[in-house]
Amino acid sequence: YVGNWGGEATVWRFDAEKDGTVVKSVTCGPSAKLRIEAFPSHRELRESDTYDMAAVRIRIVDEFGSVVPYAQLPVLLSVDGAAELVGPKVVTAEGGMCGTYVRTNGKIGTARLTMVTPQTEAVTVEFQVG
Q1: Which of 53, 103, 116, 129 could form a disulfide with 82 if both were Cys (CB 3.0 to 4.6 A apart)?
Q2: 107 falls in which pLDDT band (50, 70, 90)?
Q3: What is the dihedral of CA 98, 80, 37, 3, to 10 degrees?
């Protein structure tokens, strides 16, 4: 923690320079707003003789894009359309991260995985099933 208890919090930026040019900047500070980021292994699923499946990695991040390791939050999951959830409908973000799987369900079309926590807005990932 940088600053005094009850005082204004400090936000700071780290710049990485190479040959006198800034090549990367990272801003850090106290988290005020959390959001969900989701990274599916792929968004196109094939319905064939057997089902197809995608892994979805989920992260809880702050307004600076940093994973918040203290975010031990329940993530509510729901799927509609041409896929279904594999596993529980609620997973816990341990260290700010968790994941799930979706699989085809015999239908062709679009599927949507929606993720939300009590402290974030909902995020939806869309899959195409063909």
Answers
A1: 129
A2: very high
A3: -80
